[in-house]
Design the sequence.
């Protein structure tokens, strides 16, 4: 065990974990080194526990860590095994007697007893190319669960920016500064000054494309609705959600299963110039279609919508690269369209609250 | 390199030093600490990074802090987070209304109060009595929160427990982060003071989360050490916990037979699955106590083994579905 170099193992693990998608920075690396210095990494197992504590921040990450660590461990121990012939020329001169002695020792020394158990791993890792491990790592990353362009948390965060505070609540908020100001002006204290409670008066209409090519993104649209209605600062009664398939037609639906139709005109009549409208649809980008009917139908709908409000933005769950050549490219020229990631949602919310947006999709 | 003598936590309340701090917990904590958790605590103490504990309710996340504080003789400052808690509440609070009030009172009761205050100004710290407060000195109107107190210590670090951080507002963890990092200081705006923690007395922060409301922000997680507190799903471990509890309470522990049967029945319910809310360690201990002490005579172990429906199941199942499920399963098993 004397050949064990924890710092090398830390570096190896750091690089390996980073390439496997762990969010680690130099700060994390330095703190791991500090922990090693403090005696929290005497052997491989202790080091693994330490790194798990420091670098894994959820149960999921911890379970992800184990296979990667096994690969690193195999690498480290394989190196250890290969090393002795080179740096220790004395050993090379050793007679066969000594070797037999060594063998006898291995039977006695408990730390070597682990050897036979670990045999399958070193065999694999002794190959010059570490292909098997890399493969498994990649497979795990490409699992559908890893597709997380936007987290629930950032949705909540972004919704908070959609606000139009109006102080029309009950008059019960103590205004400390005003109270003190009045006391100093009057020279004596009479009563505290109260202000009205503020209320978020932003109205939001969410139009969600459902089924068909949007099926893989139902997870996101559901999160989007839940966060907007329950976890943001918006009043639930000010959030209206309607669903459609491909293109909002004469009637849209009130439920995600598209069973309760309601006329589009009735939904739109509830909008005024202060209503923010957010449309979530792939606009044909998921399958790469470029259909005239779709573009025309969407344009008709947008024309109708713009008579009520200008605060319109479009969130596309497909990345902007995939819009090119599909109907999405054309529609993106008629309405601010953003890909559904953190930046995109943030920009879309800027648009629907009436601020100038930072960038705008163009096919050039 | 770090503190003169390095603090380590062993999970042994007998190690408590003689010169413990007055804010240190008075009662020993019956806490059985797993080797992994012990290491996590020691690493957190060594690196002085916050230790984030996650796990089901009632598995001993909160109790750990007082176990650590008791063993090391350190003060424990507990900060219960609510949905309206702001990061600043943990540092200090400033009572502007009281100051305004004192100005008025002083005017009506002549000026002597203030003069008196001036003489004792140096000794006035937080919690100043009305006679000692002087509205001319804003320092008399600030009180330190749990973190603020921990920052003020000069002879030893404090254990700060930030309980159920996930309940707080979205910004809370990020705001906290700016304080729990170099240079370990904060400024009191109203008085212009800067409170900085001593190099060797940076607080030991233990944070618990139930993960009720989504994840914590990534930059915050990066600073923290993460440990998932698991339910002790092993008869021996559970028995160890029971033993420690009765030992520290200095009460007669229940008969061995009853403990064995209770552990076996409880674990079989726990491991069978189908429960929406699994009972935690604390619920198990309550249940065992009820079995042992509620009636004049302890519950009969043989009877407990035979029982189709668990006695005192109101202590274990807190949801209607679980309650019904437990009844159904026990009928099926018979």
Sequence:
């Amino acid at each position: 065990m004397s050949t064990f170099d924890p710092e090398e193992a830390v570096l190896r693990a750091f690089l390996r974990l980073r390439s496997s998608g762990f969010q680690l920075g130099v700060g994390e690396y330095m703190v791991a080194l500090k922990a090693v210095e403090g005696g929290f990494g005497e052997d491989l197992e202790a080091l693994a526990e330490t790194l798990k504590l420091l670098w894994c921040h959820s149960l999921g990450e911890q379970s992800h860590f184990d296979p990667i660590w096994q690969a690193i461990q195999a690498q480290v121990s394989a190196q250890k095994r290969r090393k002795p012939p080179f740096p220790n020329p004395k050993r090379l001169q050793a007679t066969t007697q000594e070797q037999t002695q060594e063998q006898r020792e291995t039977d006695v020394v408990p730390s070597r007893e682990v050897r036979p158990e670990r045999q399958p791993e070193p065999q694999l890792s002794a190959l010059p190319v570490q292909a098997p491990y890399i493969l498994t790592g990649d497979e795990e990353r490409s699992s559908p669960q890893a597709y997380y362009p936007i987290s629930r948390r950032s949705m909540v965060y972004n919704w908070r920016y959609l606000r139009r505070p109006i102080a029309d609540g009950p008059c019960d908020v103590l205004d400390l500064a005003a109270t003190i100001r009045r006391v100093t002006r009057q020279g004596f204290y009479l009563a505290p000054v109260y202000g009205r409670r503020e209320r978020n008066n932003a109205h939001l209409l969410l139009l969600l494309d459902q089924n068909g090519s949007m099926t893989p993104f139902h997870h996101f649209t559901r999160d989007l609705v839940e966060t907007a209605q329950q976890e943001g600062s918006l009043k639930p009664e000010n959030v209206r959600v309607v669903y459609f398939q491909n293109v909002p037609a004469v009637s849209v639906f009130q439920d995600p299963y598209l069973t309760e139709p309601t006329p589009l005109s009735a939904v739109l009549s509830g909008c005024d110039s202060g209503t923010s409208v957010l449309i979530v649809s792939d606009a044909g980008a998921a399958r790469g279609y470029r259909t005239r009917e779709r573009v025309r139908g969407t344009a008709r709908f947008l024309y109708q919508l713009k008579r009520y409000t200008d605060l319109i933005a479009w969130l596309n769950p497909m990345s902007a690269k995939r819009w090119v050549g599909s109907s999405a490219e054309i529609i993106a020229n008629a309405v601010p369209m953003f890909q559904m990631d953190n930046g995109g949602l943030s920009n879309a919310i800027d648009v629907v609250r009436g601020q100038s947006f930072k960038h705008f999709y163009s096919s050039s | 390199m770090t503190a003169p003598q390095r603090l380590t936590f062993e999970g042994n309340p007998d190690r408590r030093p003689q010169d413990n701090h007055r804010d240190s917990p008075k009662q020993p904590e019956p806490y059985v600490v797993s080797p992994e958790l012990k290491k996590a605590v020691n690493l957190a103490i060594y690196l002085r990074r916050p230790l984030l504990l996650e796990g089901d309710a009632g598995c001993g996340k909160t109790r750990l802090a007082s176990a650590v504080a008791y063993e090391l003789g350190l003060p424990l400052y507990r900060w219960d987070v609510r949905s309206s808690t702001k990061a600043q509440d943990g540092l200090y609070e400033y009572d502007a209304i009281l100051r305004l009030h004192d100005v008025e009172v002083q005017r009506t009761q002549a000026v002597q109060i203030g003069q008196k205050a001036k003489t004792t100004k140096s000794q006035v710290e937080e919690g100043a009595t009305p006679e000692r407060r002087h509205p001319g000195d804003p320092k008399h109107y600030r009180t330190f929160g749990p973190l603020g107190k921990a920052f003020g210590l000069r002879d030893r670090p404090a254990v700060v427990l930030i309980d159920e951080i996930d309940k707080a507002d979205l910004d809370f963890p990020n705001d906290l982060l700016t304080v729990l990092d170099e240079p370990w200081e904060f400024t009191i705006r109203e008085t212009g003071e800067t409170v900085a923690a001593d190099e060797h007395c940076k607080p030991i922060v233990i944070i618990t989360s139930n993960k009720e409301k989504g994840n914590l922000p990534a930059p915050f997680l990066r600073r923290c050490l993460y440990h998932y507190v698991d339910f002790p799903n092993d008869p021996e471990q559970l028995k160890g916990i029971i033993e420690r509890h009765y030992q520290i309470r200095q009460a007669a522990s229940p008969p061995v037979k009853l403990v064995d049967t209770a552990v076996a029945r409880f674990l079989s319910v726990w491991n069978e699955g189908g429960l929406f809310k699994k009972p935690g360690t604390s619920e198990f201990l309550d249940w065992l106590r009820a079995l042992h002490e509620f009636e004049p005579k302890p519950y009969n172990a043989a009877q407990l083994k035979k029982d189709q429906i668990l006695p005192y199941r109101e202590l274990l199942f807190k949801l209607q579905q679980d309650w019904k499920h437990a009844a159904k399963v026990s009928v099926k098993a018979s």
Chain B touches chain A through 28 residues (CB under 8 Å). Chain B has three domains: 13-91+145-229, 92-142, 235-327. Residues 95 and 141 of chain B are 5 Å apart (CA to CA).
